[in-house]
Amino acid sequence: MRIPCPYCGERDAREFSYLGDASVARPATDDAAAYHEYVNLRANPAGPHREFWYHASGCRSWLVVTRDTRTHRIDSAELAR
Amino acid sequence: MAAMKFSALSLLRHALTGNREWTPHWRDASPKPTYDVVIVGGGGHGLATAYYLAREFGIRNVALLEKGWIGGGNVGRNTTIVRSNYLLPGNIPFYETSLKLWEGLEQALNFNAMVSQRGVLNLYHSDAQRDAYARRGNAMRLEGVDADLLDADGVAKLVPQLDFDNARFPIKGGLLQRRGGTVRHDAVAWGFARAASDLGVDIIQNCEVTGIERDPAGRAVAVETSRGRIGAAKIGLAVAGNSSRVAALAGLRLPIESHVLQAFVSEGVKPLIDGVITFGAGHFYVSQSDKGGLVFGGDIDGYNSYAQRGNLPVVEDVCEGGMAILPMIGRLRLLRSWGGIMDMSMDGSPIIDRTPVDGLYLNAGWCYGGFKATPASGLCFAHLIARGVPHPAASAYCLDRFATGAIIDEKGQGAQPNLH
Ligand SMILES: Cc1cc2nc3c(=O)[nH]c(=O)nc-3n(C[C@H](O)[C@H](O)[C@H](O)COP(=O)(O)OP(=O)(O)OC[C@H]3O[C@@H](n4cnc5c(N)ncnc54)[C@H](O)[C@@H]3O)c2cc1C
Ligand SMILES: [Zn+2]
After folding, report:
1. Is the dihedral of CA B146, B151, B154, B158 positive or negative?
2. I need a labelling partner for B198 at 20 to 30 A (CA). Which of B37, B73, B129, B274 fits?
3. Could you give the CA distance from residue B94 to residue A32 in angstroms, rounded to a whole number?
4. Does residue A8 register a pLDDT over 80?
5. Is residue A43 very low, low, confident or very high in pLDDT (cuts 50, 70, 90)?
6. CA distance A2 to B303
7. Which residues of B293-350 form beta strands (DSSP E)?
8. Chain-centre distance of CA B36, in angstroms?
9. Quick check: B241 and B45 in contact, CB under 8 A?
10. Closest listed residue to residue B181, CA positions, set B114, B268, B236
11. Does the ipTM surpass 0.95?
């Protein structure tokens, strides 16, 4: 698997580390139920998945990668935020 | 149709007739309109659940629905290791229940599952790791589980061929569970299928569940499948790796990510490794199959996946781990490698519980260690479905523990599935 880093170009996946689903958002309130959903519950789709990868052995940027979990095909990689 | 009974005599008789007279060992059933219980997923857990429902709880009007063929999922893809060397109170009694069930399973099923208690040895490489293993061994012994802490000499008596004086990761000893070992994985699927079918369970293959029908009160009352609608008083999900997808059919979001784990088999060699050995300074574990191949694996790939195949960085990582303790295997050729998709839960522990949807029960989150759990998982899930209350050995595996904080995190990693 190769990830097209916007700064570094296409790089081997082993240069990156994985955090997970980029679609969950930290709740604005301190409501426990909302935090439970944010920390624990995931859509876990079979198909396109927006996910955080960190380019640890490169530019050290956080990326949001869109990847198909059925084929590992990567459709896009952009800077997080 | 009662399955024929295996005995030395029956094997001899079939040998003399050239093994031409064997008949199928379970009925390949077609769906009826309704059942008392429908179990979704024909892996080890689903099959064991169906068997114990019929055998222990007298519920025989049961269908087991499998989208492919039974044994085609993780039950036929795992590296066959069974053990009960856990640390936390929620886990030890459950896995020990399972190991005890393995010990009597072949007699109960009248099926040779090749249960082989050849020992599981976890190597340690530092003083800190020795202390951690001493703690784990003590926790096990407090619960009546066997555990022996060995020093380097003790390990050398068992496996002299290890690289003890490796400069980076010298082997200082190991934690040994002698009652751990391996079990022939597909035979587990076949043995449970045969026994369940014999008790009246309908095993229905090529039957994918595509919807969960609910009545106006919200109760789950039927499943939509590729072979039509099937009504059910109760529905149990045991679809390891696909739990999020199937639960989503009832509008549920689970504390689970699906990840791929790879496994490898080398060419066959003469007897080299008696038991199961795990490397303590990286992720590598190995045993030798009865055919002679080394069966080994390591870490999950670490990103969400439903692909049933992994990538090369993990292959390299696993092989490096192998070379660190057994440099001699560097010249072996790899015969096969494959991947399986597992539910990685947020705390690394499983779920056997009711769901917020009435009539719908969940067995999920087995991570990379659910094969050893197969008989106890089936027994406890059947207990929950039949009686409506958790089996005492599985009472910690509740779904709401992620919200309440009563998580069971053996590794202490937090809600990060790829780190468990
Ligand atoms: C490479 C690898 C090595 C492993 N090694 C070990 C080990 O050494 N020891 C250990 O204890 N554990 C191990 N595990 C973990 C273990 O294999 C699993 O935790 C366990 O097998 C999961 O339970 P199961 O047998 O019921 O799963 P499965 O056999 O995967 O059963 C689930 C079934 O559900 C079916 N299904 C899915 N969706 C649907 C649907 N919509 N409708 C109908 N059916 C559906 C699937 O086709 C599948 O057959 C390993 C896993 C892998 C991948
Ligand atoms: Zn970069």
Report:
1. positive
2. B73
3. 30
4. yes
5. very high
6. 13
7. 293-304, 334-345
8. 26
9. no
10. B114
11. yes
Per-residue DSSP letter, B43: S
pLDDT tens by residue, B255-293: 999 999 999 999 999 999 999 999 999 999 999 999 999
Residues of B with CB under 8 A from a CB of A: 242, 244-245, 248, 253-258, 302-307, 311, 313, 346, 402-403, 415-418
Flag whether pLDDT at A19 surpasses 80.
Answer: yes
- Pair B342, B74: CB distance under 8 Å: yes
| Distance of alpha carbon B148 from alpha carbon A71, whole angstroms | 44
The amino acid present at B38, given as its one-letter code, is V
Residues B345 and B159: beta-carbon distance below 8 Å? no
d(CA B315, CA B311): 7
Going from the Cα of B9 to the center of ligand 1, the distance in angstroms, rounded, reads 34
Rounded to 5°, the CA angle B409-B341-A74 comes to: 105
Please state whether the predicted TM-score (pTM) of the whole model is above 0.90. Answer: yes
Q: Which residues line ligand 1 (CB under 6 A)?
A: B 40-46, 65-68, 72-75, 77-81, 208-209, 238-242, 246, 261-263, 297, 340, 342, 366, 368-372
Exposed, middle or buried, B166 (CB in 10 Å: 0-12/13-18/19+)?
middle
